[in-house]
Every structure is written in structure tokens, then in C-alpha cells.
Amino acid sequence: MKRKWHVVLVIVLLALITGSVGAFELPEGFVYVTDVIPTVRLDIRYYTGYNFVGTRITGYEAPVAILTREAAEALKTAAEILDEQGYYIKIFDAYRPLRAVEHFVLWGQDLEDQKMKDQFYPEVDKSQLFDLGYIALRSGHSRGSVVDLTLVYKDTLEEVDMGSPFDFFGPISHHGTDLITPEQEANRNILRDAMVAAGFEPYPEEWWHYRLKDEPYPNQYFDFPVDSPEYQSWRGVLDEALAQSVARARQTMNENIGGPFGAAIFDQEGNIIVVASNSVLRDHDPTAHAEVNAIREAGRLLGTHDLSGYILYATGYPCPMCLAATIWANITHVIYGARPEDAEAIGFRDDFIYRFIEGGRVDSSILLIEEYGREECVQLFQEYAEKQKQIY
Q1: Dihedral over Cα of 300, 302, 305, 310: its sign
Q2: Strands 272-277 vs 262-266: parallel, antiparallel or unpaired
Q3: pLDDT tens digits for range 88-114
Q4: Residue range 157-161: mean pLDDT, rounded
Q5: Which region holds residue 387: left if phi is over 0, alpha if psi is between -120 and 50, else beta?
Q6: How far apart are CA 164 and CA 154, in angstroms?
Q7: Pairing of β 30-32 and β 334-338
Q8: Could you report how far apart the first and last alpha carbons of the chain are, in Å?
Q9: What's the CA gap between 225 and 21, in Å, rounded?
Q10: Three-class DSSP labels, 230-289
Q11: Segment 123-144 mean pLDDT
């Protein structure tokens, strides 16, 4: 699926910065799943742009999972059963506010918006999504006792192969489908059996969807946002990083130093270490992107090539080069503003390069890659290894 190498598909920071706590409080009867199940993994897709709509969904203000207390306790029972078998649970969605469901409905009515069709509903006509039950005017998620989840292996944290990805619209996602392998069916059954034993019932059309049978609010739908006090404070840091990155990018853009790209690196206490912008035109350096410049400057200021624990904000989704530089710097958390297609719309090639990489890097009309002199080069590598030089 597109851009599988996202540095951040998941943001799991429950206490990133210190400072005053925001005013948000969960309604009585609801809990954060991480408070009940410490081993749970989160990949809250509707907080991100990687979902069938293609943008963050209204009402998802933080990448947290919320459930009724009863549902969370039952889910804990399922998690304990699965833990004994070598698995953790990973949650894609839990409580979903009414405003999010309304967002889905409005999107479903806009037949022109099909940018995520290839990833999530390639064989389904969007006009049929309501009739086929993939989108509804009301969702059980809004009652707080429905959860969408999968399994990951405890030792690797890799997702278990379920035969189709989360939120894939089609018969292959149904329980009992003959479109998957026996092993994939067995994996689904491991999840199903644990969830049923804990008091949940499956939804026949979606292998990931489970509802607590004895849900405490069977007729009540909620609309409070998916949020947390920590993330209210966290957004203050992001607002400052955004403001400084945009201001720096606008300044250098107007001075014809580089493109409309800025970046900031900050620590887990919210202290901004550096702010940088694109300087390709001034420096005559095609690698002088905002993110790379920020990484270089942070390394100089901190006296290290290892930026573990630091966070990068970028005004645009990092290009492949910048993502690679970020990974080399050991930064594991990236937040971005504009998407690759936004940059492509004004003439930049980020999305074009992603498509080249996703295609296996075999299009020689774009880039011819050849091997030559491997023996001599491997010898050089071996000499480095024998000297026990630092690996970074």
C-alpha cells in the first residue's frame, strides 16, 4: 500500500511535554484503553490521513483509543488470552464521535473524491458504499463499546497477516470468505475466538470489527472528541513549531533562497532546538531541503549525529531523501503539514519519486541503477569492519 515506510503511521505519546493540563476530561464511564491494557498498540487511522477518506477525520484530536469502561475491561480479558498465545492487540479505532460519522457520510456523498480508491475500495463503486453497508448514518462506535483491531506478534510487533488490510471494502474482508489462505483464516479465528470468549461479537463483513454484547449504552450515541489532556498541551508545541517553520519558509521563499518548505526539531519537553528552511537555490545544493538542513544544524548544535528522542516538524511531507535522512538521524517521530500531492500540484516531484520507489526502482527512464566494482567495494567495507569503526 502507498508509502508503507511512513516514519510515523502511529503516534503513541501519552506524556510528551510538561506544563499545564488542558481542560478536556472524559465523560463518566469512559476510559483510555492504554490505562487498562498497557501492552496495547495503537494505530488510530482516523487521526491520520491514511484512511479511506484520505484526511484526518473530524473529531479525532489525538491518536488515543477510548472505550466504555466495560468494553475496555472485556478487551483486557481478550488481550490476556492473546498474550498467552504470543500476541498483542493493535487498535485502529474505538469510540468514534458522531461528528466523525457525519464526516464519513459527507465524504460518501461526494462521488468526485476517490483519491483513496486504489488503497481501500478498488473493486467497489463509491456510489454503492451506503447500500453495501460500508458507510452508515449511525455507527455503533459512537456508543463506545465497539473496537476495530488486529494482532501483532509480541517479539517483532509486526502485524499478523489477516488476508486484507483494515478498512478494505470488499468480500475479502468478510468472515468466512474463500478469498484468503487457510493460514490467514486461522489468524482471523485466533482474534475472533479470544474476542468472543471475552464477550464481544464479530461483525460478519469486517474481520477487525467487534462489539461488546452487553454494552452499557445500547441506545445512546456520543459526540465528545477523541482527545486527551496531554495532547491539548502537545498541540501548543505543534502550533509553535508550525508557526516558526512557516515563517522561516516564507522568509527564505520571498528572498529566492529556496522553496516553500520549513522544518523544526524539538525535544520531548517541547523545546525547539532548530528551525530551518529550504536553501537549494542559494546554496546550489539539491540536498539542501528544510529537513536535511534542520538535521544538520541540530547535529552541530547538540554535538552528535544521533538525534534519538527528538521530533521533526515539516511544512510538507518529507521527500524520500529527507525521510531517509530522518531515519539515519534516529528520529522516529515526524509531523507534517502539506501532503506529497500538494507539493506535486505546484510542480515539485515528491510524489513522482515515491511512485518510482514503489514501482521497484526499475524505470530506467527515470533513473538507471547499475552495479559495478562490487568486489573492491566490499573489501573496503570489510576493512572498516575489521577496524571496529563506529556503526551509525
Answers
A1: negative
A2: antiparallel
A3: 999 999 999 999 999 999 999 999 999
A4: 96
A5: alpha
A6: 21
A7: unpaired
A8: 29
A9: 17
A10: HHHHHHHHHHHHHHHHHHHHHHHHHCCCCCCCEEEEECCCCCEEEEEECCHHHHCCCCCC
A11: 93
Three-state DSSP at 222 gives coil
What DSSP string describes 282-323?
HHT-TT--HHHHHHHHHHHHHT-S--TT-EEEEEEPPPHHHH
One-letter identity of residue 352: F
Q: How many CA atoms lie within 13 A of 87 on its CB side?
A: 21
Residue 305 cell numbers, joined: 549525529
Q: Give the DSSP letter string of 119-134.
A: HH-TTS-GGGTTTTTS
Q: Which residues are catalytic?
A: 206
**Total-model pTM:** 0.70
Q: Which three cell numbers stand for residue 106?
A: 459527507
pLDDT tens column, 171-221: 999 999 999 999 999 999 999 999 999 999 999 999 999 999 999 999 999
Q: Which three cell numbers stand for residue 49?
A: 490521513
Give pLDDT tens digits for 17-43. 333 444 689 999 999 999 999 999 999
